[in-house]
User: Fold these one by one.
Assistant:
Number 1:
Amino acid sequence: MDDDPDIRDILRDSLNSLGFRVLAASNGQECLDMVDKEGPELVLLDIEMPDKNGLEVLKEIRQRGSDVTVIMITAYGTIERAVQAMKNGAFDFITKPFELDHIAIVVEKALERERLKRGFERFAEEAGERYRLIGGKSPKMSEAIETARKAATSKSTVLLLGESGTGKEVFARAIHKWSERKDEPFIAINCVGLSKELLESELFGHEKGAFTGAHQLKKGKMELAHGGTVFLDEVGDISAELQTKLLRFLQEREFERVGATQPIRVDVRVIGATNRDLSSAIKEGRFREDLYYRLNVIPISLPPLRERKEDIPVLAQFFLRRFALETKKNFTGIIEEPEARLIAYDWPGNVRELANVIERAVVLGQGPNVTLHDLPPQIACAERESISDSLSYRHALHAARREVIIRALAYTQGNRAAAARILGMHKTHLLNLMKSLGIE
């Protein structure tokens, strides 16, 4: 926007020659109308205008909710006003008289910022979709989410327990996102499949010449995650020697790189995860008991999918939408019979397996609905008896009773007499119910 027709023509021709589509406005109101109607990526605003000056136009653009990138054009005598404009949300300013090459550089820089911003917004939206996976209506999942949200407000170490495919990394990322560390790094390390030496180097880094092949200094993940969160997946599989070093790190929040003697101190939140029974590993001498207690400050058990079957229809629909968008295929739902078979199946691979099954159905199916023919044989042939059992009144009542008693025991920290009083029953009746419902 500029009231000088010569400057408008020069800018328009110059930017057109660089491949940009340019709209020119001669006054503030015309500029505002164009921003509303055209939604440009970038606005060049002259500060000195006869009706509404550039500062007033910038203010109104922001009041209308637009976050379009704005560059101010100013004469030398009004640089202070241009600086004020930047404080009010302008990206940069250009002084008159200007060089066209300089304008091209500033415009390219501003548009690159705009592209990066949009890319980050898309990433944030996609990340937000991932966190929806941890939702659900089942009491066990609701309890896990509530514990995770409370844990996120602290610096305490969290240990995620659950079978493979239950979403432990998604949960860890959610805890990081809900915490004050959300703008700092989140670094995931898979402790399986790496030798002791390689895993130690991944965690703590190494000095140049520390071992054969160490040609230069390497910072470890603990150091790179300073201020943020480190997720140790399958932490139950690390070697005995590395368990000792990890214990020291959890105690002191300091470590030495491999080949170094100078300790490095960092501020890192640790979230561990395992699908192993660490109590058994401790008894067998494969896992340090003191390390277990350091990791197990806030334990969160993630239920397998077979124990949260009421969540299967919601999760299946979520994956259906995702893969339909990715493949650009017209899938809108899952009809009753295949949905019942999905509920009947025991899902040894948990949520990860469900995602794979729905992706297969979308890729191989015709749509618009998932049918039995779109499911793999082991699911399509699930026994009807197991379907009726999982949805029966008896099954639902059993699950509800069990959940209520577990919650009462958790509230009283295992005091069965107090739990019985809360539930309004005799302690003997509670003990009998616990035994019949398989509650230890």
Number 2:
Amino acid sequence: MRIILIGQAAFGAKTLEALLSGGEQIVAAYTRPDKPGARPDPMKESALAKGIPVFQPPTYKDDQVFAHYKELQPDLTILAFVTDIVPPRYLEAPTRGTICYHPSLLPRHRGGSAINWAIIMGDHRTGLTIFWPDGGIDTGPILLQKEIAVGPEDTTGSLYFNHLFPMGIEAILESVQLIGETRAPKVPQDEASATYEPLCDDRVAAIDWSKSADEVHDLVRGCDPQPGAYAYWLGERVRLLGATLRPGATDQSPGRVVAIDQEGVHVAVTGGRLVVSSLRGATGGKMSAANWSAENGLKEGDYLGKTA
């Protein structure tokens, strides 16, 4: 099959390499435009190294961009980590259709922050979906799904890099094989079970210490590594990373620092304490919580505020 790959970043690059290793024919790679002064996208670098033409349209709405895309005569288009809006006509042009990778068990957690929300909302299981996009937001029939457990200490980062990234590439290869053998299903999504959440950014990352210990812990894990769940110290946002929940009684009010040691900063929560191993301030990178506290004057008994 003549395959066009639309994607970006490490996931797009690894998908391209895996398809080529499996003997598939990639006729073109589409990725985001280069940012001034930034390193080229990894998928672009990988494609060029393999001699595959790369296209970086600033928009997919341009008729000339679409005309050139059609001239490539794709049998199948694969969307591998796509943040741009790809109009339906691109999805419909390939003779075998278009498939897309999404890191949740659709129709649950549609949207661009699916992994974050699975953790924030306390899901015990999540996974990935390969589906046939139809122009909606993560809508379209399902080709296949893979399911995994969400561990109590999992973060968005650990779920993605340890599980959903490598499993996603394997699922794409499996899907391409099924399509090539004309055995790929198209199972309608159950709209009654659909959920859609917004992007996980600072509008949802503020810690509310009045919530239960599990809710606070899930928010911190779901925002780790980005954007980083935050509270305030001396009027500035401080982001909490690498959190472990220790259930048990405490006589301190939620949000109060009860200890600082080599494990990290221990913060009281309703029904226990949250042990945070790393902190990141408004400037500078992530540091061990103990070192950050020493540098910024955070000490036992201090309160990490909900507002500046």
